[in-house]
Design goal:
Elements: H1 2-12, H2 34-48, H3 54-57, H4 63-74
Helix pairs in contact: 1-2
Length: 75
């Protein structure tokens, strides 16, 4: 899950997937804009065939938090 997410992240911001760490913060470290983040959520919904709750997604700050959330939804 982490590797796939890192790959998707690199489609939205100028970062090599290898440079994405579990503790990387979307806004501060990876330089996501709110639009980038919401666009990525849409892609994740399609990729993993899940439905992301916008209020819960707004609480996600780090890549690891996103992985944990996605794994919970995919279970």
């Amino acid at each position: 899950m982490f590797e796939k997410l890192a790959e998707i992240i690199s489609n939205y911001v100028e970062v090599d997937p290898a440079d994405v760490k579990p503790e990387s913060r979307f806004m501060e470290d990876l330089k996501f804009t709110s639009f980038d983040f919401m666009s990525m959520l849409g892609e994740l919904e399609d990729e993993f065939d899940i439905e992301i709750d916008q209020k819960e997604a707004a609480q996600i700050r780090t890549v690891q938090e996103a992985v944990d959330y996605l794994e919970k939804l995919s279970a």
